[in-house]
Q: What sequence folds into this?
């Protein structure tokens, strides 16, 4: 016997769930999957986790849903957390290359340093 709950109370209940739980309830049936995949719920989760999500517009999001955005960014964080220093190649550069003024002519193949107050 399947019980059908109204959409609005379900959305309210789902709004208290974390991402993992939301993914789990999406597996119950098609109706719950549709509700649990709602952009409203996933955007709220994104805003809780990353402050810059308030600035993301649908145009910047593109064809990606908020759910896809959340999952991809979480995957990126996980991948970055596993990185070790030896996974990166870096080189130190001389200090004179750190700050230069494009408007000044180059001397001896190097940019002239700019003194900022």
A:
């Amino acid at each position: 016997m399947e019980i059908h709950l109204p959409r609005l109370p379900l959305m309210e209940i789902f709004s208290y769930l974390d991402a993992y739980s939301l993914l789990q309830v999406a597996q119950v049936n098609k109706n719950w999957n549709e509700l649990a995949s709602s952009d409203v719920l996933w955007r709220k989760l994104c805003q809780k986790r990353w402050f810059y999500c308030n600035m993301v517009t649908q145009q910047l999001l593109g064809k990606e849903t908020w759910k896809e955005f959340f999952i991809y960014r979480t995957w990126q964080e996980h991948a970055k957390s596993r990185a070790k220093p030896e996974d990166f190649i870096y080189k130190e550069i001389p200090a004179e290359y750190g700050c230069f003024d494009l408007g000044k002519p180059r001397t001896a193949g190097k940019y002239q340093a700019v003194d900022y107050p």
